[in-house]
Design goal:
The chain is an alpha+beta fold. The protein has six helices and 26 strands. A hairpin with a 4-residue loop joins strand 11 and strand 12.
């Protein structure tokens, strides 16, 4: 009896351990997650169906999220890319817009985004800026809604939209905004910025026209001097825009060399830094602005044969380094295809093209003779590959990332 009585406290302790511990209600957990950061919110939404439903209800009732550290890369926000392809048959030649969905299990799901002949100009946070029948239109692929902008205004004096080649005007899509407390507000209004760099013997100015969805109109024309930019002639237009650190960046080339142009949005100050003399002068070398760290300094990606290079700035002097580093080679991309069990498309040559950088996911869209690849700049590794023989000719490509407010409620589904 004495022996049995000594075991009773141990049994009671074990029984106590099996009792369910107290937990916070789901509504409280969602309220905490909505004030955390993107990665935490995603993890919460991934835990169970009930949590995803609560997050969806939270967004529906309150309209937007206020997330800390919203500038961190979140790879799942990459949802694919838009392809403007030419389709031929016996009687017709059609230009259609397709969406390649990277969320598909086999990475090869492609469906028609629109039957209207349209040209993708920019994309950001789940919105896409298209030119449709001469009009600018901002579309939300998730909600299947769109807004047609008023006619584009003309740049004063020497420049007008009708007289400048479309390739020389940069269209920038800006979504959301920063709050005074440093949080990122998801689900705000958008802006469309038209940017043109006017370079002549006596002028080196960046000209801007901005549309605000909140006011529904184009704002005032802005003409800003580009400090440190040299040259009397612009060779080509502005490259794709990189928005990072509260600034817009563009690549440009004048008759004196290649530059990275920087516009500080809040102060409307424009400055330029010249790339080194050894930077490829042949503009057929494809180039793209990106950043390997969310919110970090820009780098310039260039291609040469079967390699992609990265040109970086010195942290101490802000000058561009004289020699680039190799980011990835074709052989690594081909090994990814072989490891994935795919069959290589037929190829008659070698070559790479950097097309687009996703500042929410930290990925680069690459085109090659073997299809499209997605490169994760953090790991310097390929994470996706896509090829479809049914599109014989492609003339436009642009990546597509989702907004957190749209993506979290549809965590386990495609769109």
């Amino acid at each position: 009896m004495a022996a049995r009585s000594r075991t009773q406290p141990a049994t009671a302790t074990a029984r106590g351990r099996r009792q369910t511990t107290a937990s916070l209600p789901l509504d409280v957990l969602v309220d905490i997650a909505a004030r955390s950061d993107p990665a935490t919110l995603v993890r919460c939404a991934a835990t169970c169906v009930d949590m995803r439903c609560r997050v969806k209800e939270y967004i529906r009732l309150r309209g937007r999220l206020r997330l800390r550290h919203g500038d961190r890369f979140v790879l799942p926000l990459l949802r694919g890319h838009l392809i403007r392809g030419h389709q031929y048959d016996d009687r017709h030649h059609r230009k259609e817009l397709f969406l390649v969905d990277t969320a598909a299990a086999d990475d090869t799901t492609m469906h028609r985004a629109t039957t209207i002949s349209s040209v993708p100009l920019a994309s950001r946070d789940g919105l896409v800026l298209l030119r449709v029948d001469g009009e600018l239109r901002v579309c939300n692929q998730v909600t299947a809604t769109s807004q047609t902008l008023p006619p584009e205004p003309a740049f004063p004096v020497t420049v007008s939209v009708s007289s400048v080649p479309a390739r020389e005007i940069s269209y920038v899509l800006v979504v959301g905004g920063d709050n005074d407390d440093g949080a990122i507000a998801v689900g705000w209004h958008f802006q469309v910025v038209m940017a043109y760099l006017d370079v002549s013997q006596h002028r080196r100015n960046l000209q801007l026209q901005t549309f605000s969805s909140e006011h529904g109109t184009w704002g005032h024309y802005t003409d800003i001097r580009a400090h440190n930019l040299q040259g009397s002639r612009l060779e080509g237009g502005l490259g794709r825009t990189l928005i990072v650190g509260g600034a817009m960046h563009w690549l440009c080339r004048t008759n004196t060399g290649a530059y990275v142009l920087k516009l500080l949005v809040k102060t409307t100050h424009v400055s330029a830094t010249k790339l080194p003399e050894c930077f490829p002068r042949d503009w057929s070398h494809h180039r793209l602005l990106a950043t390997p760290v969310a919110g970090g300094s820009p780098i310039v990606l260039t291609t040469d044969g079967d390699k992609i290079f990265a040109w970086a700035q010195s942290k101490q002097t802000a000058k561009w380094q004289e020699r680039p580093q190799v980011v990835i080679e074709t052989q690594a991309m081909l090994r990814f295809i072989d490891k994935a069990g795919g069959s290589r498309p037929p190829s008659t040559g070698r070559g790479l093209n950097v097309l687009w950088f996703g500042d929410k996911s930290g990925t680069v869209l690459i085109n090659s003779y073997w299809g499209f690849f997605w490169l994760d700049l953090r790991s310097m590794k390929i994470v996706r590959w896509f090829w479809d023989r049914d599109i014989p000719y492609i003339d436009e490509n642009i990546g597509y990332e989702m907004n957190l407010a749209d993506w979290v409620p549809t965590f386990s589904s495609t769109f």
